[in-house]
C-alpha cells in the first residue's frame, strides 16, 4: 500500500516521541522560539501545524454542524448509533481516562458539570472518581440524553437539556467543567468558554476535550465543510482570553493512530485552565452573531446536508484506514 507522505511536523513532534504529553502553556513563551515545561525545553516551531489556514470563519458561514439547529438534527439521527460508531473509532475508554487525568477528579464530593454530555460516555469516566449525585449532564439534544438516562452508573446524575452558551447554573457553582467532543459544533467557542468560566468556582478547572486541526488536504477539506477542528494554539488563546490561567494541553489519540495527526482527530487533545477570580469572565463580548431562527434556503440546506453526510462518512472511515495501516506497517515505522 502506498503511504501518504508523512507530515514532517508529526514525525518530529518531541512531545509524542518523548512520550511526554503535557504542555504547560502558563509560560508566556509559548509563541516564542522555545519554551520550558517541567524542566524541559521544547522548540515551539514543532508545535505549530505545518499548514496554517485559519480555522475560524464568520458566524454567518458556519460549517454544517457548527450551527445549533443543524447539530440538533445531526444528533437526532446519530444518537441512534453514536455509542457504537463514534466511540470505538474516535473516543476510546483509554483516551477518555487519559484526557480526564488533567481534570484532577481527586474528591468524590466535587460538583461537576459535563456539558454537551450527550450519551454520557465521558460522564461514565467522571463517575469513576466523583459521586454521580454531584454530576450534571447537560446537552441540547434530548435524543442523546435519552441514551445517557439508560445507563445504570448515571442513574443518580442530574440530566438536563440546555445550551452550552447559556448554562442554567449560577455563577461560581461548579468545581469542574468538562466538555468532550462538543466544541466542534459551537458557532462561537469564545462565548461558550466564557460561560464555562462563569459557572466555575474560584480554583475550579475547566476541561475541553476536542478535535485537532488536519493538515492533510482532503481531511482539511472535509473538516472545513463539516465541523470546527481548532488548532492547538486556538484553544490556548480562547482559554486565556476568557481569563483562565495555568492553561495546559495534553495530546490524545487512539492507540492505532501512533500519534499521527495529519487527518485531524475528532478527539485529539484535552485542554484545561483554572479560574482564579470569582465572578464572570473579564472578557466582554457583543451580541450573539448566530441567528438560529433565521429561515434556511432549502436548496442551500440540502447541499450543506449532502456535504455534511459525505464528511461524516469520510471521518467515520479514517480510523478504519489508520487501524488497517497500524496492522500492516511494522511497529516503529511511520504510518
Ligand atoms: C460528539 S457528542 C459528545 C458527547 C459526549 N460528550 C461524549 O463524550 O461522547 C457532542 C454533543 O454536544 C452536544 N451539543 C452541541 N452543541 C451544543 C450546545 N450548544 N449546547 C449543549 N450541547 C451541545 C450535541 O448535542 C452532542 O450530544
Automatic annotation (TrEMBL):
Residues 63-272 form the MPBQ/MBSQ family SAM-binding methyltransferase profile domain. The chain crosses the membrane at residues 301-324. GO terms for molecular function: 2-methyl-6-phytyl-1,4-benzoquinone methyltransferase activity. Residues 157-170 are annotated as: SAM motif II. InterPro entries: Methyltransf_11, MPBQ/MSBQ_MT, SAM-dependent_MTases_sf, SAM_MPBQ_MSBQ_MT. Residues 112-121 are annotated as: SAM motif I. Pfam families: Methyltransf_11. Residues 198-211 are annotated as: SAM motif III. It comes from the Eukaryota. GO terms for biological process: methylation. Keywords: Membrane, Methyltransferase, S-adenosyl-L-methionine, Transferase, Transmembrane, Transmembrane helix. PROSITE patterns: SAM_MPBQ_MSBQ_MT (PS51734). The keyword Transmembrane applies. Belongs to the class I-like SAM-binding methyltransferase superfamily. MPBQ/MBSQ MT family. This is MPBQ/MBSQ family SAM-binding methyltransferase profile domain-containing protein.
